Amino acid sequence: QVQLVESGGGLVQAGGSLRLSCAASARTFSTYTMGWFRQAPGKEREFVAAISWGSSITDYTDSVKGRFTISRDNAKKMVWLQMNSLNAEDTAVYYCAARHFGYGLRPNQYDSWGQGTQVTVSS
């Protein structure tokens, strides 16, 4: 397993931006698919974005396409989620997740999880 630590959450007004960061401890970070998920109060954890080990493949849930961008730097063992044009529906705890080999978009396909960072968008 890999240890993941998220940061960058906070309170932002609707229309604003935030950049979430995820620092990984994996020795072979470049062999991990990385994903961002979120969970709002009373709702199930949902997929937000994923990026393959070499950044050649990225996926986004429909509601964030064109607004969010996932990226990674394997040398720094970092993953980021740039979030623009935020709205109240984006309010949730955001989790960074890692999957060793393979690729997936569902939470149960990921092996390691961070502790989460709260994003609150005020309208």
Can you characterise this structure?
The chain has 123 residues and is mainly β. The chain has strands at residues 4-7, 10-13, 18-24, 32-39, 46-51, 58-60, 68-73, 78-83, 92-100, 112-113, 117-122. The strands form 2 sheets. Strands 2, 4, 5, 6, 9, 10 and 11 form a 7-stranded mixed beta sheet that branches. Strand 7 (68-73) and strand 8 form a beta hairpin.
How are the SSEs placed, and which strands pair?
Elements: E1 4-7, E2 10-13, E3 18-24, E4 32-39, E5 46-51, E6 58-60, E7 68-73, E8 78-83, E9 92-100, E10 112-113, E11 117-122
Parallel strand pairs: 2-11
Antiparallel strand pairs: 1-3, 3-8, 4-5, 4-9, 5-6, 7-8, 9-10, 9-11
Concise summary:
This protein has 123 residues and is mainly β.
Subunit organisation of the chains: single chain
- The biggest beta sheet, please? 7 strands, mixed
Q: Considering DSSP H and I runs of 4 or more, what fraction of the residues is helical? A: under 10%
Which outline best applies? globular
Q: Unreliable runs, pLDDT <50, ≥5 residues? A: none
Binned strand content: over 45%
Give the strand tally: 11
Output the keywords.
11 strands, about 120 residues
